[in-house]
Amino acid sequence: MKEEILRIQEEALASIAKVDSMRAIEDVRVAILGKKGTLTMAQSGMKDVPKEDKPAVGQMLNDVRRAISTALDEKLDQLQVEADRQSVAGIDLTLPGRSVAVGGIHPISIIRDEAIRVLRRMGFVLADGPDIEDEFHCFDALNTPTDHPARNEKDSFYFDSGKLLRTHTSSVQIRTMEKQNPPVRIIAPGSAYRRDEIDATHLSVFNQLEGLYVDKDVTIGDLKGTLEYFLQALFGQETEVRFRPHFFPFTEPSFEIDVKLKVAGCEPKWVEIAGCGMVDPAVFEAVDSSRGNKEYEGMTGFAFGIGLDRLAMIRWGIRDIRALIENDVRFLSQLQ
């Protein structure tokens, strides 16, 4: 047994010395130390060794296995050094390195993260919901009549099941109120989907950030104060903000929000930027009906929705919204 072990060691070390590639060193390792390797098979013969000789033979097996493993590792290191040397052969290592193009954060991500930080400072928390919605959460609970254009299959993406890709993240507001008792103060950033003709100002998939605040005695003053602070935090303390009466099915009264942009070399102009309003009582009734209680009875609140793509276009003076989805590094590198 001892003679066989010494023979295996001698042959193994000789084989290792001849190896000239990474693949070959692994083949040798398996042939000697693998499950069916020569040393492993020899070790299985320990059962036939006399009891008084087993300690000495066992020690010899361990020593030989250790010696072979060390030789394999040393050979592997030698091969790696040689491979590294060949990889830089002919290269002047004293030459200065070439600069590597570094990517940046997408403008939508930048403006979304800034908006979230501002609103979280005001006590809003993040909420999320599914992109594939049912009509109750997307329309019915939001007081949208059955003949509203948004419910037409020419305006929204419907599935054969009757579900659809959400047309706004307002559905997250409904799902949150179904799960949570008032007060509620959430923001819901995410994608929305509409069958809009793609052009310089429209995409069929766009990014929204919607907010909802529900409590006792929430007023229009709370709505205006919150959104004025928010927009001035994004565009500067001198930014002028105005509210124009409008109509949305889920808010009453409702407003469009404009900000006055002042661009160097151009006359200041008002730009529509968001929609908002006080939550219509019919929305609270739908939520209570879905919950099976009247937790939202007597509550008041406001909601708002802002297109993040539009915010990015205004912030960086982007004239074509399609530039935000084309992944052109030349365009994106200008906005970092």
Descriptive overview:
There is one protein chain. The chain is an alpha+beta fold. It folds into two domains: 2-87; 107-335, Bira Bifunctional Protein, Domain 2 (BirA Bifunctional Protein, domain 2). It is 41% helix and 20% strand. It has eleven helices and nine strands. The protein has helices at 2-18, 22-33, 38-43, 54-87, 107-121, 135-138, 170-179, 220-235, 281-291, 308-316, 329-332; strands at residues 125-126, 132-133, 164-165, 184-193, 205-215, 240-248, 251-261, 269-279, 300-307. The strands form two sheets. A seven-stranded mixed beta sheet has the order 1-4-5-9-8-7-6, with helices on both faces. Strands 2-3 form a two-stranded antiparallel sheet. A hairpin with a 2-residue loop joins strand 6 and strand 7 (251-261). Helix 2 (22-33) runs antiparallel to helix 4 (54-87). The mean pLDDT is 88.
SSE map:
Elements: H1 2-18, H2 22-33, H3 38-43, H4 54-87, H5 107-121, E1 125-126, E2 132-133, H6 135-138, E3 164-165, H7 170-179, E4 184-193, E5 205-215, H8 220-235, E6 240-248, E7 251-261, E8 269-279, H9 281-291, E9 300-307, H10 308-316, H11 329-332
Parallel strand pairs: 1-4
Antiparallel strand pairs: 2-3, 4-5, 5-9, 6-7, 7-8, 8-9
Helix pairs in contact: 1-4, 2-4, 5-10, 7-9
Summarize the structure.
With 336 residues, the protein is of the alpha+beta class. The protein contains 11 helices and 9 strands. The chain folds into 2 domains: 86 residues; 229 residues, Bira Bifunctional Protein, Domain 2 (BirA Bifunctional Protein, domain 2), CATH 3.30.930.
